[in-house]
Fold this sequence. Notes:
Layout: E1 4-10, H1 14-25, E2 30-33, H2 49-61, H3 73-79, E3 85-88, E4 90-95, E5 105-106, E6 109-110, E7 112-116, E8 125-128, H4 130-144, E9 147-149, E10 153-160, E11 163-170, E12 173-184, H5 191-195, E13 201-202, E14 209-217, E15 241-245, E16 249-255, E17 260-268, H6 277-287, H7 289-294, E18 299-300, E19 305-309, E20 312-313, E21 318-319, E22 322-324, H8 339-356, H9 363-389, H10 394-416, H11 432-446, H12 453-460, E23 475-476, H13 480-485, H14 494-504
Amino acid sequence: MSKQFDLAILGSGFAGSLLALLLERQGFSVVLIEKGRHPRFVIGESSTPLANLYLERIARTFEVPELLPFSKYGSWKAHYPELPVGKKRGFTFFWHQAEQGWKPTLHGQRAYLLVAASPHDAIADTHWFRPDFDKHLVDLACRAGVVYLENTMPLHATETACGMKLNVKGPEGLETLEARFVVDATGAHAWLARQMGFRPEPHPYLPERVAIFSHFRQVARADAWLASSQEAWPYMPDDAAVHHLLEEGWAWVLHFDNGITSLGFTLRTDRLPDQDPEACWRQLLTRYPSLQALLAHAQPLYPLRMLPERPECFRQLIGRHWALLPSSVGILDPLLSTGIPLTLLGVWRLATLLCQYNGAPPTEALEQYQTITLHEFDHTARLIGGLWRVLNQPEAFAGLSKLYFAAASFRETRLRLEKETGIPGFLLSDHQEFVQQQEALLAEIEQGCTPTPETLNATLAPFDLAGLTEDRHGFYPAQAEDVLAACHKIPATREEVWAALQRSGFIVPETTV
């Protein structure tokens, strides 16, 4: 085996293996270094419309057509039936009161919110069953020619005049590898940043949290909770990223088609019932009887895992010959499923830079990558932090969450209409007017005030393509008529919008305006 490479990538999760695949296809020699082996249990599973659009653009830009079916639930099921996946039609939120079963109202406020991301199953988003999906990407990378070293632990990294030297220990013993550029895709470990002498810095946006989670079989669905409103459902409530909002934090439920469910709690450290994950889990289920009923027959596939989620991030993401992917910058709470799209943006940007500069991006280009990545992290973390501040206030949370839904749908629509070029900023983080208005709203919340519905709607209105400023009684479907009615905001003609809706599969081509 050659020990000199154009690129070395640390970590073979979906981001590292995807980046390795893209760069190998573009003619680089790539080594992918993994301390463990696949398949393995990992979370970070829920995609979004923007994530799938990014994946589609990446596949086309770097000529990897095998990735295209993964951008929609229907095409995934048709082309890769052997790879488990979950159907994600939108975001579902249920608010709970401790010691009581779930009820449709809480303190006089509606205790549910369903926001659709797609109008039908064929173009739905997906939950990635990471044990199999990550392994599949590694296999694709290996078939493309990537050198894959599993069970290989990086020990030391040093910069040289023309690249990086990596000392690793694998099944064959100690080895020294050289690469012109190294990418850290190790996630929260951020091994390379620490190795280069950097440490994460605290940020003020989110509370200190702990995640407790596993995969389960025989988790019941909560659809029946909303049976009396079934005619208004934009989708089956559990065909989504399901959020159960609690006094201590919140719980996620993601159903896969293979009968497995990803389920976990994200809890404030200062509200943690117990330091032992099993005891903490039992106490939470006792406090929330409706959740306990959903898990009455659940069987865990793995022992419960308990991981800290500290409000901190790295501020130095680059060196002369190295860079971190966004997944290694810091842990963002998964409340809005922002992890996958942010990471895909990082893969897209770094792959573009490395190809543009033949594996040796200049300092100016890397500094721009760092600036954009940190700005998007802060922009997203501050919004999620605002939502945490009103987690137990259904009306305030629902109103504030619409900033996310408006920004995501506005950006997605403009991209599909080809109204923007290049790699976009996440959640309109590059749109000055939107950023200013969002920051003003979040500053109010951080000072203990709650923006009025009128103030929120005034902020949303210029970007609302989904009827979010209307009161739809907690149910927001994905409808062509909403986009058509708002076409002047994009701006685009009705004919342009209609053609884009047809191209995307949103509507069937036979329908007419």
